[in-house]
């Protein structure tokens, strides 16, 4: 017998695994080519724009770059595109599995905006498309001729978007969507701009025409944007596991500062690769920004326990046989950490932002309680609160009595 909770959790794990693998491949190749381009020796005479000797894995590599294109089409040409496409597709699949199928839990916060699941999903998908269009229009306009001005405008757009998301989504979904928006811009650059431009150059070479250098210039601009946006995307995706980043009042300010940290860190490495200096000040600036993030995470905290809105699914679990017993078990074994004011030694904030003090909070987290403390022994960590086998059995029986089975 397969249960929906088990299958969905393994599906989530599998999609996340694929997403991480493809992201490593994309980010690795992106960082490598930026470092390679910046580090080319351009003082060597010849037809190439620059060249570099590298050693790795016991072998030597001689790499040359042509600013527009070589005189003739190479016999073997490797394209770098599938890493980007696979990363975006697997990320969107993960969003569907977690945030769209689990909209009541992860996407919607009734205390922020009492949306129906379909409304929240439409806002999510629509924002991905609209922000890409706005960014692309800016890049192609005369305003985008100045790359510094364009990057500042992009930053302002992302800050406004961060605040806007906090008005419609949960804190966790806000950070996730900022990461998804940024990743969409990056992957869109590859799919809609960089690859088509490269195809034009290849077509000109095959036809014996001299390629127009403007296509390479445009692709280089978008590639540079991707370089500076990569680190914030990683932070935003990881932040959904840390309540101090997403479950605070000013999480949109935290996200705004993270984008600045991405700039300072990449500026250091880009300068180093280009041999144009060693700007140690960037590490000081990054440290100041990170301290500011820690400080912002403590602002505006409301110690009052807020009421949880019961969804139809949660209501079913709260009315199921055995809920009263499970309620007592959770209060006795879990709530010392998972509460508004934890009283377990060393715990200051509820782990993962999960609070299990009220009937509504417990019913809303039925699936997590079942998987973490019933079906597996992940919680409590090291069984610190000595939950008994018969108590785990009661959790399993209660959940299975009310859960929807896959088959």
What do you see in this structure?
The protein has 407 residues and is mainly α. The protein folds into two domains: 4-296, no CATH class; 312-402, no CATH class. Helices cover 63% and strands 3% of the residues. It contains 15 helices and two strands. Strand 1 and strand 2 (59-65) form a beta hairpin. Helix 1 (4-39) runs antiparallel to helix 2 (82-100) and helix 2 runs antiparallel to helix 6. The N and C termini lie close together (6 Å).
Q: Proportion of β residues?
A: under 5%
Helix content: 55-70%
- Radius of gyration using CA atoms only: 25 Å
What's the SSE pattern? HEEHHHHHHHHHHHHHH
Q: How many angstroms does the end-to-end distance come to?
A: 6 Å
- DSSP, total strands: 2
Low-pLDDT sequence parts: none
**Strand order across the largest sheet:** 1-2
Average pLDDT works out at 90
Provide the number of structural domains: 2
Total count of helical runs of at least 4 residues = 15
Structural class call reads: mainly alpha
Brief descriptors of the model:
about 65% helix, about 400 residues, mainly alpha, 2 domains, 15 helices, elongated
Brief rundown of the structure:
The protein has 407 residues and is mainly α.
Secondary-structure map:
Layout (H helix, E strand, L loop, with lengths): L3 H36 L10 E7 L2 E7 L16 H19 L2 H5 L9 H24 L6 H20 L4 H36 L7 H26 L3 H4 L4 H23 L7 H16 L15 H7 L4 H11 L25 H6 L1 H10 L13 H14 L5
Antiparallel strand pairs: 1-2
């Amino acid at each position: 017998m397969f249960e929906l909770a088990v299958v969905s959790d393994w599906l989530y794990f599998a999609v996340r695994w694929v997403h991480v693998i493809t992201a490593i491949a994309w980010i690795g190749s992106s960082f490598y080519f930026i470092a390679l381009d910046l580090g080319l020796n351009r003082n060597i005479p010849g037809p190439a724009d620059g060249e570099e000797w590298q050693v790795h894995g016991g072998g030597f590599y001689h790499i040359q770059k042509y600013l527009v294109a070589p005189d003739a089409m190479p016999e073997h040409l490797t394209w770098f595109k599938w890493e980007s496409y696979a990363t975006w597709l697997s990320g969107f699949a993960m969003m569907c599995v977690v945030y769209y199928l689990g909209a009541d839990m992860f996407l919607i916060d009734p205390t922020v905006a009492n949306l129906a699941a379909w409304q929240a999903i439409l806002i999510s998908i629509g924002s991905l498309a609209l922000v890409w269009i706005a960014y692309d229009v800016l890049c192609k306009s005369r305003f985008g001729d100045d790359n510094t001005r364009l990057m500042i405008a992009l930053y302002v757009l992302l800050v406004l978007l961060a605040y806007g998301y906090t008005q419609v989504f949960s804190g966790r979904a806000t950070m996730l969507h900022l990461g998804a928006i940024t990743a969409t811009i990056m992957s869109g650059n590859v799919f809609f701009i960089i690859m088509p431009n490269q195809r034009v150059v290849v077509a000109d070479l095959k036809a014996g025409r001299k390629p127009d250098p403007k296509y390479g210039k445009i692709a280089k601009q978008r590639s540079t944007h991707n370089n500076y946006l990569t680190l914030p995307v990683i932070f935003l995706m990881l932040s959904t596991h840390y309540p101090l980043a997403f479950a605070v009042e000013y999480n949109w300010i935290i996200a705004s500062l993270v984008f600045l940290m991405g700039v300072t860190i990449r500026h250091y490495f880009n300068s180093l690769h280009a041999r144009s200096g060693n700007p140690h000040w960037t590490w000081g600036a990054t440290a100041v920004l990170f301290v500011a993030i820690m400080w912002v995470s403590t602002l505006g905290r409301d110690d009052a326990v807020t009421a949880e809105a019961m969804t139809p699914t949660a209501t079913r679990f709260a009315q199921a046989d055995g809920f009263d017993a499970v309620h007592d078990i959770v209060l006795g074994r879990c709530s010392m950490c998972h509460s508004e004011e934890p009283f377990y030694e060393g715990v200051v904030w509820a782990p993962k932002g999960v609070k299990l003090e009220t009937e509504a909070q417990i019913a809303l987290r039925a699936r997590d309680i079942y998987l973490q403390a019933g079906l597996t022994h992940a919680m409590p960590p090291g069984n610190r609160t000595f939950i008994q086998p018969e108590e785990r059995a009661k959790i399993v029986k209660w959940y299975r009595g009310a859960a929807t089975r896959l088959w």
